[in-house]
Sequence to fold (95 residues):
Amino acid sequence: MLGKLVRAGILKSSASKTGGMSLGRQPQKITFLDIFEAIEGETPFLHSHNLRETVQTDDIDEFVKQADKALSIFREAENSYKSSLSKYTIADLLY
Fold:
């Protein structure tokens, strides 16, 4: 996990006698979203596997409409989650 944070520039690593880890940017410039995406990646939470193509139903159009609606709800929730994380920085924990 630390390696991911170093690669994202959130942490700096120093391999010396007095080395260790330190912040790679000012605390007010590191959002919780930065940390989340460094660790978890930026791919969407929900991955559509197009299972609707295998469903047997009399009304495929209605099924597709409802499936798209469900995906839209999940996308909206993910956007809200990430929006909330982007509002807070490490500095909010320090001061």
